[in-house]
Design a protein that fits this description.
The protein has about 425 residues and is mainly α. The protein has three domains: about 180 residues, Hypothetical protein af1432 (Orthogonal Bundle), CATH 1.10.3210.10; about 140 residues, no CATH class; about 70 residues, no CATH class. It has 17 helices and two strands. Strands 1-2 form a two-stranded antiparallel ribbon. The longest helix is centred in the last third of the chain and has 30 residues.
Length: about 425
């Protein structure tokens, strides 16, 4: 067993390419967290869309603030369950590093333009960032980029969907789950980090990270909806409006139990901290913030109690346990997600700006793939020159575009797509 963290073995602290510790006062997992915290990919999240576009207001969250909030929730939840807090913290900080400009809208655009070469998936791109693209370490003999060269436990904690695009599981209705965590040309490091792991089963730390992500964005997206869009939760007292929210849960998340969502709404509305009225005053802002805090505590405490009831005390790590989330808690999370969808996310789907974002990314990818090294940042230009075929070169162009912030995507599109079209005179 490891001397650093109870519940972990020495192999959990292995790195894909071995390194000598630089200091004796930090664990390998603490070093992982620090590498992610200091990464350029994390900094870029400060100018990438969460639910509302970066720059749409001083209050709204970006991918960076969301990731910091996920890390806070995940660290405390993991610590209460016996995980190494730095492993969960690192995974939470890293979980969105692969997201492109414009959030999930940008993700869909890049998936469409790469359908013939394996598609684009934010989770697979995250693994690619931390194992290849982030400029931190290189192989001492070959010079091959190694990304952050994290430990096996931290890498596996990032993997929510432990399969590739050709191995998608299917739902009960026969449709594929369109989520995966590895592209085929990143398969070697994926196979290494998943050595001896049960097939298709995320590690316990990955399950904690995934729940922390769900809790954070379900709660905070409602908060952003209320403040930015002036949404009054009181309108959900109308049964038809509440059923409209339940319908969004079916359309967006596949949740079919309307009664469970309406029951969840009744439970939450019965608490004194449920903030139905909002007028922008300090008092209403404070009430809203208290509601978010109460919701996070409620969901975490219910999960801790349910998991401990099944698995008992002691460290719950790697593949020694499964996270147990009560059905009532799941219903409350989905309800909150659906509220944000109903009031904020669904209405924007048909907006011209939303369509423009997808067009900008698609056109930019094709322009960069055609122009090649002269249009790319130096590290991506090197990847382009080393690419063996058009498919690999297209993937490099996608890597470059996915790394950009929202504003940079527009700037690059203007430079490489719009400006060359203009007649010279």
């Amino acid at each position: 067993m490891s001397v650093n963290s109870p519940g972990y073995e020495e192999r959990d602290e292995d790195r894909y390419v071995p390194e000598s510790p630089k200091t004796a006062n930090r664990t390998p997992f603490a070093r992982d967290r620090a590498r992610i915290l200091h990464s350029s990919a994390l900094r870029r999240l400060g100018a990438k869309t969460q639910i509302l576009g970066a720059g749409s207001g001083d209050f709204v969250r970006t991918r960076l603030t969301h990731s910091l909030e996920v890390a806070q929730v995940g660290r405390e939840l993991g610590k209460a369950l016996g995980c190494d807090p730095d492993v969960v913290d690192a995974a939470c900080l890293a979980h969105d590093l692969g997201h492109p400009p414009f959030g999930h809208n940008g993700e869909r655009a890049l998936d469409e333009v790469t359908r013939e070469i394996g598609g684009f998936e934010g989770n697979a791109q995250t693994l690619r960032v931390v194992t290849r693209l982030e400029p931190k370490t290189v192989h001492p003999s070959t010079g091959e980029p190694l990304g952050l060269n994290l430990t096996r436990a931290s890498l596996d904690a990032i993997v929510k969907y432990p399969w590739g695009e050709t191995e998608l599981p299917t739902r009960e209705d026969g449709t594929a789950v369109r989520k995966f965590n590895v592209y085929e040309d990143d398969r070697a490091v994926f196979d290494w980090l998943r050595e001896d792991a049960p097939a298709r089963r995320p590690s316990f730390e990955a399950q904690v990270m995934d729940l922390a992500d769900d809790i954070a964005y379900s709660v905070h997206d409602v908060e952003d909806s209320v403040v930015h869009n002036g949404v009054s939760l009181r309108v959900l007292r109308d049964l038809e409006r509440a059923k409209g929210v339940a319908a969004q849960a079916l359309e967006w998340y596949g949740w079919t139990d309307e009664d469970a969502l309406l029951d969840a709404l009744d439970r939450l509305r019965a608490w004194g901290w449920w903030a139905e009225d909002f007028d922008g005053s300090r008092a209403s802002l404070a009430a809203l913030k208290d509601m978010t805090s109460q919701l996070i505590g409620r969901m975490c405490n219910a999960t801790i109690a349910a998991t401990r009831q099944v698995h008992g005390e002691g460290p719950l790590t790697r593949f020694r346990a499964e996270l147990v989330v009560p059905q009532e808690t799941l219903a409350e999370i989905v309800l909150l997600k659906a509220i944000a969808v109903h009031f904020l996310m669904a209405p924007r789907e048909a907006s011209p700006a939303y369509a423009k974002q997808r067009r900008v990314l698609k056109e930019l990818v094709m322009a960069l793939a055609e122009r090649g090294p002269d249009a790319l940042e130096p590290q991506f230009a090197a990847d382009y020159r080393a690419a063996s075929d058009d498919a690999a070169r297209l993937r490099v162009a996608v890597d470059q575009v996915a790394s950009l912030t929202d504003k940079s995507a527009y700037d690059w599109h203007h430079r490489f797509v719009i400006s060359p079209r203009r007649p010279r005179g």
